[in-house]
Amino acid sequence: MYTLSLEIINKCNLNCTYCYLGEKKNTYMSLETAQKAIDIAVHEANKQYDRTLMVYFIGGEPLMAFNLMKDAVGYTKKKCQETNLICKFSTTINGTLVTDEIIDFFVENTFEVKVSLDGPEYVQNLNRRDYAGNGSFEKIMKNLPLLRKYEQATGNQISIASVVTSNNYQYYAESFQFLLDLGIRKLESGIDHYCMWNENDLHGLKEQLEQVFYLYKNYIIQTRQMLFWNLWEQHVKSYLFPCMFYACKAGLATCYVTTDGGIYTCSELPEFKIGTVKAGLDVPRIREIVYLNDKVDSMCEGCEYINHCKTRGCQTSNYEVNKDVYRPIEVNCKVTKWMYNLIKENLSEKQLNNMKEEYERRYIRHGK
After folding, report:
1. What are the residue boundaries of the Radical SAM core domain, all occurrences included (predicted)?
2. Is the pLDDT of residue 366 over 70?
3. 3 state SS of 186
């Protein structure tokens, strides 16, 4: 599958304190730029063995450019039909601008939908406020029935994305339970690696992470139901299977296009620019990034998990924070070790072998 991340707008109705975009440019992508990006992505998707294109709409708040989203979806479907490609769509939204029309559109086009929600009201409103300082929790809860409508119509579950940062980590387990009580079954925890974590913060984060793990484990044992938690899923896979440096290979099977038509591997960093929609992809530059020689940072020397660690190979994040593609971000490193220790302590060898066989069946043989 080839994934095209389209930044259709660099503007938002919220002013979240930890937004990775920083100060917004207040720019919109033109339809022409979107179409050129889609043309490039269609060409690349035709090279993939499963002949599938995923278009991921992001912002800012993408629903502030809903008309462009609709036009881009229509254009993508037309182009994919012409070349016999499978097309899929996804988006991440803040949940405050949802309407019946938008939900019907998501249902009609089988969107994968992710909504940003950190936890109960006092947690959500710590960091996710509008420009007047008003919290966003009430608006999202008001729109919850619309999100349920999507789930009922598609059979797909909404994913909830939560950011864990230095001023809310102490509520992590509490927020996880709150989301479970809401009936959320796809939870994505994003550990904020842009903020400053001191030793006390890291100690507290470790304790909270362990509590969240046991909430996750006990829920599955008690209910016998499936529950997706990204940190567990991601770390179990990388624990079971060795991974090479820069394992994601962003730039080969993915690209990120900004509102002005710049093409990047996955984040808008000049050092990781790989083309423009006008000039096309810079293939030599993509190869330089993707096939960069591995070099072990001093921080990683002697680590028992070095051959199973995706953190050390995340070039863009490492460079963005440390200005060094080889030096992993400290909090990401610690979270990886904590998760691997939880795996070792809680899964038997038989369980690990069974999980490995299942992953091989699901991800390797079927390419999912």
Report:
1. 1-231
2. no
3. strand
DSSP annotation of 83 reads: T
User: What is the identity of the amino acid at 42?
Assistant: V
d(CA 35, CA 75): 7
Token pair listed for 45: 């998707």
CA angle centred on 95, ends 144 and 149, rounded to 5°? 35
Number of H helices, E strands in the chain: 13, 13
Kindly state whether residue 355 falls inside one of the protein's structural domains. no
Look at residue 258 and tell me whether its pLDDT is greater than 90: yes
For residue 115, the enclosing domain spans 2-240
Instruction: Tally the domains of the chain.
Output: 1
Question: With the C-alpha atoms ordered 68, 73, 74, 78, is the resulting torsion angle positive or negative?
Answer: positive
CB atoms within 10 A of CB 8: 30
Please write down the HEC assignment for all residues of 91-119. EEECCCCCCHHHHHHHHHCCCEEEEECCC
What the block records as the tokens of 265 is: 């591997």
| Mean pLDDT in residue range 207-229 | 97
| C-alpha–C-alpha distance, residues 133 and 135, integer Å | 7
Cα torsion at 319, 322, 325, 329 (round to 10°)?
-100
| 0.85 surpassed by pTM | yes
In a domain, residue 137? The reply is yes
Per-residue CA distances from 173 to 168, 170, 203 (Å) = 10, 8, 14
Both tokens assigned to 299? 């921080």
Let me know if residue 57 belongs to a domain. yes
Look at residue 312 and give its three-state secondary structure.
Answer: coil
Q: Is residue 316 included in any domain, yes or no?
A: no
Strand runs labelled E in the chain: 2-7, 9-10, 27-28, 52-58, 86-93, 112-116, 159-164, 186-191, 228-229, 254-257, 262-264, 273-276, 280-281
Enter the tokens of residue 248: 């994601």
Question: Do 216 and 229 touch, CB atoms closer than 8 A?
Answer: yes
Q: How many CA atoms lie within 13 A of 160 on its CB side?
A: 29
CATH code of the domain containing 179: 3.20.20.70
